Amino acid sequence: MTKQNISTWILLLVLTIIAGLVSSTSLTYVIPLILLLAVLKFIGVAFNFMEMKKAHVFWKVLLIGYLVVFCGIVLAINS
Questions:
Q1: Sign of the C-alpha dihedral, residues 11, 14, 44, 28?
Q2: What is the chain's pLDDT, residue by residue, as a tens digit (79 residues)?
Q3: How many domains does the chain have?
Q4: Which of 15, 17, 48, 58 would give a disulfide with 8, using CB separation of 3.0 to 4.6 Å?
């Protein structure tokens, strides 16, 4: 494993722990915060482990567009 893979893996672990700790609180914006952490983890996995950083711009835009639409639907349903 390269240093970048190890640092991404550690960041994913930290974000997962933060999401677990946030989920047990009673903050007003728990769901958007957990969704934001999940998006960051998704981007980390996609661009590092799935090599999306070397992909064509079309696929990058499609990935980010999917995240925006998905998050928008989840937040709209939850409101």
A1: negative
A2: 789 899 999 999 999 999 999 999 888 889 999 999 999 999 999 999 998 989 999 999 999 999 999 999 999 998 7
A3: 1
A4: 48
* Domain range for 8: 3-78
Report the sign of the C-alpha dihedral through residues 53, 59, 61, 63, in that order.
Answer: negative
Query: What size, in residues, is the chain?
Result: 79
Q: Note the pTM of the prediction, 2 decimals.
A: 0.86
Could you give the CA distance from residue 57 to residue 6 in angstroms, rounded to a whole number?
26
Cα angle 19, 44, 72 (rounded to 5 degrees) comes to: 65
